[in-house]
Amino acid sequence: MNRNKKIDRLDFLIICLITIAYTIVSLINLGDTATPTTQPKMENGQYISYITLEEQEHVDKVLLFKGMGVFNVAVYNSADNGTTWHEIASGMYGSDPGEIYKWITIDVDCVTQNLCISIGADADLELFEAGIISNDREVLKTYTSNECRLFDEQQFVPVNPTYMNETYFDEIYYVRTAHEHLDGKYPFECSHPPLGKLIIALGTIVFGMNPFGWRIMGNLFGIAMIALMYVFAKRLFKNTFFATAATFFLAFDFMHFTQTRLATIDSFSIFFIMLMYYLMYIYYDSSVEQLPRKDALKILALCGVAFGLGISTKWLCVYAGIGLAVLFTIALVKRTKQGDDPIRTCLWCVLFFIVIPFCIYFVSYIPYFIAVPDQSIFKTFWDNQVYMLTYHSGLEATHPFESSWYAWPLMLRPMWYYGNEAIANYGLCSTIVALGNPIIWWGGTLCMLFLLFKPKKRSGEWFVVIGFLSQFLPWVLISRSTFIYHYFASVPFIVLALVYVLKMISDKYKKGRIVTIVVLAIAFVLFCMFYPVISGSVTSRSYVMNVLKWFESWILCY
């Protein structure tokens, strides 16, 4: 199926089929679409609820679903129908950043029919629901002596909270910040520019402040990456079969799947990186005759907008800007020899890649300006730039799952995002781990090395190598704690490198495409095998430990 680089009906059909299939799989168990929303009314910073159960029960724990704020709680029981109360548990919650949109567990372990929950907090507390859980792992039916919004949405109370009904990993920072932007408050998480959190906030506006709502935008951007990869690969390889292969590899890469189902900002930054490189490739791949100056400037302007959106999401995209500059220079030299005006183009690019991106970046800070109206917007903006630079350059914290740049392609230390400890005692496992599809990461890395040291590189091969190096090499110089998910920005380029080499094999050997089909099949089988540990699906713990744990350094579950 050798075809030109334009998208035709067959290409459109393939894009739709792969995208729809991926969408269905990625939306399965993304998160609950509803959580408790009503809140009890505090009087003088205190709330007390007296609870009667249908009969005497062995109560195991009390669950409280909280959003923002800090509160203290005390739980009492009574053996004489409320005449005498005994405190059986107490604590302060919410001061830990991890206790945001979480089900707080208070262990009580008592036999009783009467309970009292006393809560003290400030006016900013968001406390949505409580649940009484029996020793038999049931949500007990409760009766309260007062009008109680703390027990009015019992259908949402989980026996064992999971990622489906609360935040996990770094969602605790980004979901909170998205909520604060909507409330006009200065954000808790300000170590990255605001745009990514604003995109997460958009999802919560449309779908509500629930796990589905705060994860859907990242998921949609992950879906969009699939279609973008096809268009990019079709332009690069000028071949429908290998464009399909590249899209298939990205769709079934573990990191892409896991990272885009998580309410963090990585989905957005990687999408914008792919978009800016695709637009730059159009300029890089075209002659003056194919792409006249007027049209070329439009493409460069769009590329600059994508760059501006990217850096407004995460500074990681600055690295991409280095690669864009190198590729632009190569393309400009080529076009100059064809009669293009390099001075005029460069002057326009000052606007496209400096002025416009800065304006996008600055405008993204509007939520900060709203949060501190009495301060100069320029001071607010500058203070955050200084904070981010100081934070990232001075970060010395250690983490059990940190890994150095050279360990990422080999997947020596996957990142464990989530594990359900409650079901481990039953021989089950629900876990979410960030790692790559072995055939894609290991095979793609070898192919990238081949292209890197290949004596005579084609134009497209140079493009892929430069794109990869711009995203990967800067991490070699960074001494702060790093993690395997920092390799996510390099994944699209190792996919393209893998397909490049597979295409070389196909071009050289008559039945070379069989190799590509075999690699695609292996990638699909591996995705199916590892699906439980990248999706949070409940599976047998013995399966994870005996089949999927390939190395001792891989921590996959409890």
Instruction: Characterize the overall form.
Output: globular
| Secondary structure category | alpha+beta
Number of β-strand runs: 10
Q: What's the N-to-C terminus distance?
A: 48 Å
Strand content: 5-15%
What is the H/E string? HEEEEEEHHHHHHHHHHHEEEHHHHEH
Radius of gyration: 27 Å
The assembly state of the depicted protein chains is single chain
Helix and strand layout, with pairings?
Layout: H1 9-27, E1 46-66, E2 71-78, E3 86-93, E4 102-121, E5 127-134, E6 142-144, H2 171-183, H3 195-207, H4 211-237, H5 240-251, H6 254-259, H7 266-284, H8 293-311, H9 316-337, H10 342-363, H11 366-371, H12 377-394, E7 415-419, E8 428-429, E9 431-434, H13 438-453, H14 459-472, H15 491-508, H16 513-535, E10 539-540, H17 541-548
Antiparallel strand pairs: 1-4, 1-5, 1-6, 2-3, 2-4, 7-9, 8-10
How would you sum up this structure, described in words?
By secondary structure, this protein is of the alpha+beta class. It is 49% helix and 15% strand. The chain has 17 helices and 10 strands. The chain has helices spanning 9-27, 171-183, 195-207, 211-237, 240-251, 254-259, 266-284, 293-311, 316-337, 342-363, 366-371, 377-394, 438-453, 459-472, 491-508, 513-535, 541-548, and strands spanning 46-66, 71-78, 86-93, 102-121, 127-134, 142-144, 415-419, 428-429, 431-434, 539-540. The strands form 3 sheets. Strands 1, 2, 3, 4, 5 and 6 form a 6-stranded antiparallel beta sheet that branches. The chain has a two-stranded antiparallel ribbon with strand order 7-9. The longest helix is centred in the middle third of the chain and has 27 residues, at 211-237. The radius of gyration is 27 Å and the shape is globular. The model has no long low-confidence stretch (mean pLDDT 93).
